[in-house]
Specification:
Layout: H1 18-45, H2 53-58, H3 93-105, H4 115-124, H5 127-148, H6 158-171, E1 187-194, E2 203-209, H7 212-218, H8 223-236, E3 241-246, E4 250-257, E5 262-267, E6 272-273, H9 278-283, E7 290-294, E8 297-300, H10 302-305, H11 309-312, H12 321-336, H13 341-371, H14 398-403
Length: 426
């Protein structure tokens, strides 16, 4: 059989090359849609000229044009999902309630700027140990970079190494029982648990402290208390921190890396560093909102932690997306109103850089999904070694993790003797 009669296989392609083409296609579609909207409005504002008597005998009269209400004529939000989001203030009850919740959460990181509290935190941290380990790791990273080439920068800077050493020390802290004066020390609420063992049936009080100083003394809490305390310690050693709230009951920390010019995911409960896919792809946790709060404002960082919304995302029905943009912009204005002109400009540049990073995660996930489709159009299995093996959650027992949907994608169900204790009070 000659070469001319053989079927020609399509050339191999790199899915990463589709990112730029996809961005250009999406940009063109949005511009075309924006260009069509003014034309349609202009054509609807002018009625057709009245026909003459002679022409009216032969042509039917056009139907009367209904009055156009600019508010009712606007298309619903789902039809605008590919359009640029224009911030809109909350108007419905759910949106107003969500705005109040986010504004309340945004006050938390302001405590990290308390100079007296930061001094108390420095007194708790073993600074000699932290800085010593950071210096050793920093020198090792510099040596590794120098061995690659003269112009190669280390992966992490010295301040990043300080936070990594602090994370290692903080993860090894022990926990102690709650103190008797829990109510006087600002516990937001006290949870009451009763042992499920019939031979015990004892009660256990668990105060949920919101005050960072009380947490430093008791060293008792769950992820909320750990993230709150660790974020303040990071701020005490000079790091820029963000406290990340997840609507599905988890919180963690982000620390800004001047070396990489981006925010780094840090989970003090898990001892995790720069592993944002941990929750969705490691724990099997489905999430809707991940909002980062700092002394400089609030940012929706869900795209950093939920790369594939069809697999790991939940419905975002607290408010329309335009309203969420309006709320985060409002918080940024409140937090930056007293900042200098230079600081505001620097923060705007960081916001634009982060938005580009978050868009890159979405485009990268789309390109990877397209790359896994074979010639017949059916999804193909990923090549061996392509998918990264992410760890499952280590904090909490297996029954508690399974009840929260965080036991991993392939975790077996808990045994009867591993069921969590029954909660009888608050």
């Amino acid at each position: 059989m000659s070469d001319e009669g053989r079927p020609q296989l399509p050339p191999r392609f790199d899915p990463r090359d589709l990112t730029q083409q996809f961005e250009q296609l999406l940009r063109t579609r949005r511009l075309n849609a924006l260009a069509e909207r003014p034309r349609s409005r202009q054509s609807s504002q002018y009625s057709s000229p009245a026909p003459s008597r002679q022409s009216s005998r032969h042509a039917p009269h056009p139907p009367p044009r209904p009055s156009v209400d600019t508010h009712s004529a606007l298309p619903p939000y789902p039809s605008l999902r590919n359009m640029p989001k224009i911030p809109s203030p909350p108007q419905d009850t759910n949106s107003i309630r969500f705005r109040s919740q986010l504004l309340s959460l945004s006050h938390g990181p302001q405590k990290y700027e308390n100079a007296g509290l930061l001094d108390e935190a420095l007194a708790v941290i073993p600074l000699d140990r932290i800085y010593g380990e950071a210096e050793d790791e920093s020198q090792l990273l510099q040596a590794q970079a120098a061995s690659i080439g003269p112009n190669v920068k280390p992966e992490w800077g010295y301040q990043d190494c300080v936070i990594r050493a602090l994370l290692k020390w903080f993860k090894g802290l022990g926990m102690s029982p709650p103190t008797p004066d829990e109510s006087a020390r600002g516990a937001a609420r006290v949870e009451l648990y009763r042992c499920s063992d019939d031979a015990c049936r004892a009660y256990e009080r668990f105060p949920r402290y919101g005050d960072v100083w009380a947490l430093l003394q008791t060293r008792r809490g769950r992820c909320g208390e750990w993230a709150n305390c660790f974020s303040m310690l990071c701020r005490a050693v000079g790091g820029r921190v963000r406290w990340v709230w997840n609507a599905e009951d988890h919180v963690w920390t982000e620390v800004y890396s001047e070396q990489q010019r981006r925010w780094i995911h840090v989970d003090s409960c898990e001892g995790a560093w720069d592993n944002p896919r941990l929750y969705a792809e490691g724990w099997g946790k489905k999430m809707s909102y991940c909002i980062a709060f700092s002394a400089d404002g609030a940012t929706d960082v869900t795209r950093r932690y939920v790369r594939d919304a069809s697999k790991h995302g939940l419905d975002r029905n607290r408010c329309p997306e335009e309203v969420l943009v309006w709320i985060t912009d409002e918080i940024k204005k409140l937090r930056r109103e007293n900042a200098s002109k230079e600081d505001r400009r620097r923060l705007i540049i960081e916001d634009h850089r982060e938005e580009k990073e978050l868009r890159g995660y979405v485009l990268g996930a789309l390109a990877a999904e397209i790359g896994r489709i074979n010639i017949s159009g059916q999804p193909a299995a990923p090549p061996a070694g392509e998918e990264q093996k992410l760890p499952e959650r280590v904090s909490g027992d297996r029954a508690w993790r399974a009840a929260r949907g965080e036991a991993g994608n392939h975790a077996p169900p808990p045994r009867d003797d591993e069921r969590p204790p029954r909660r009888e009070g608050q």
